[in-house]
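Exercise: predict the fold of this chain.
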Amino acid sequence: MPKTASSLLLYILIASQLQKSLTSDSSATLSTESSESQCGGYCFTALKPILDHIAANQQRWNACDATNQQCEAKLERIESQLVVLQEKVSAIEAVKTPEGNLVVIPKAKKLENFVQIGSRFFYIEQHHRVNWFAATNICRQMGGHLASPSSEKEWSAIKERLTRGRNYWLGISDLATEGLYLSQATGNMASYLSWSSGEPNNHNNKENCVELRSDSDFLMNDIECTYKTYFICEAANES
C-alpha cells in the first residue's frame, strides 16, 4: 500500500476512535484487543498511545466527579452547622436589653408572676415577643421551662388565660429528630399534642418549634424557631 494511502487510513482510524470515545459512556474503557483487530499491528502501534491517553483522561474525569460530590456534601454540612450557629446567636441577641446587656432576672422574682392553673404553676408572657431559644432562656432564668401541657384539661385551662390575636411558644420541638416532638421540660415525648388542621407540616423544612396559634383556637402549630412571639413558662418540678 502506498505511504500516502497508509497515512490517510491511519488518520481516518484515529478520528473514528476519538469520536467513539467521546460519545461512549464515561465509565467505559477502550478495548485494545478490538482496536488491534480492526487496523492491524502497524496501525495499532501508532494508535495505542492515543487510546491510552484517552483512557487515562476518562479516569481523571471520573475522579473529578467523585471529588465534586464529596465537596458538595461537605458544603451542605457546613451550611447546616451555620444555621444552628445563627439560631444560637439570635437567642443570645433576643435576651439583651436595648443597651446591649443580657437580661438577668433576680432570684426573688423568679416565681413572682407564676399563677396556678390546675395543679401546676405557669407564667404567661404578654408584653414581649422573642424567638423560641430566647423564650427557653428566659423561662430557665425564672426557675422553669417553656410550658408543655400535660393533658387536654390543662391545655384548656391555659388557653382561657391567653389573649386572642397572640400566639404563644410552648416547650415542644422536633429539633432533635424530625417528626419526634419532645417536651423541653422532660426530654421525653410530649404527653399532650393537639394540632391545628394540616399541622404539623414542616413548611420549607424549617419548622421545628411549636406554638399555640390564636386563629385556630390555640391549637398547636409548628413554625420556625426564629419567629418572635409571646411564650408560656411552667415552674420547674421541685421534687
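Check your answer against the key: Confidence is low (pLDDT under 50) at residues 22-33, 103-108.
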